[in-house]
Amino acid sequence: MLKKTAYFFCFMTIFFSAHSLWAWGSEGHKTIALIAWTRLGPQAKSTVHELLGPGESMESVASWADHIEKERPETASWHYINLSVRQPVGEFDLSDACKDHDCVVDQIDKDMGILKASFVSKRDKREALKFLIHFVGDLHQPLHCADDHDRGGNEKWFRYYTTGSRRRYEWVNFHAFWDNLLQTHGGGDPKALARALERKISTNDEKEWEKGKASDWALESYTIARDDLYADLPEGPLLEKNHWGRDLPEEYYSDKMKIIMFRQLEKAGVRLAYLLNALFEGKSDPLVFP
């Protein structure tokens, strides 16, 4: 395993050194926006273009919500929802996990309501659109919908080796690992990645994913986190003193996580388009607009 993963760890060092904890990173959010844009109807495209204004696009504003957190700290909790992976969770439990509407599920619903409303300023609608574009992406990063008393993986640390030697390693937390997984699999060109993922989306996929609402998709992401991401990890926080990295499961160096990641990006793109078409193309769905 040491030889197999040596290059992987060397490559990861570049990205984890920046301590980015944002879902998918800029590349992932841009990829989702690009997939969604190709699926918008003509009226939806026109409305999005008008709201964003000259020089802006869904791709260019896709990570805006991450960059305003320091100026607007009240938005930090809007990017995720904490659902425990150690106990059964259903839709009834979402309200308990989303106090005062400070979670990604309720914020998506709020933004949809603002965009649908007739008597709302263009400025407020522009902001709601930018949040919506981003939050749909966050909702599909499984660790933004799950928790193990570890702040969504931010307090689960493992050590990885930067060379073939077992004497040299650095610490990386589990959430950052997932947020940066895209870059380790050639995600540096969002346009190229979006085109490649588009070719994998079947008509049946699209029909299946264009169902439900934000709460349904949050539970789907939660289930993926519970069953695939956390399944073989010890419970609770794992700080550096735990020396957890020695036992990182083999599947984290295989294609399993890459397949999950790409599928989630595809779903997010299709569903973002589904919501925007429901808003701006007159294709209202009773689940989207109860």
Instruction: Give the CATH level 1 class.
Output: Mainly Alpha
> Secondary-structure element sequence?
HHHHHHHHEEHHHHHH
Instruction: Report the CATH superfamily.
Output: P1 Nuclease
Shape: globular
Biggest β-sheet: strands ordered side by side in the sheet: 1-2
Distance between the termini: 51 Å
Mean pLDDT figure: 83
Number of domains: 1
Helix coverage percent:
40-55%
Radius of gyration: 19 Å
Q: How many helix segments?
A: 14
Walk me through the structure.
The chain has one domain (2-280): P1 Nuclease (Orthogonal Bundle), CATH 1.10.575. Helix content is 52%, strand content 3%. The protein contains 14 helices and 2 strands; from the N terminus they run H-H-H-H-H-H-H-H-E-E-H-H-H-H-H-H. The protein has a two-stranded antiparallel ribbon.
Summed up:
With 290 residues, this protein is mainly alpha-helical. The chain has one domain (2-280): P1 Nuclease, CATH 1.10.575.10. It has 14 helices and 2 strands.
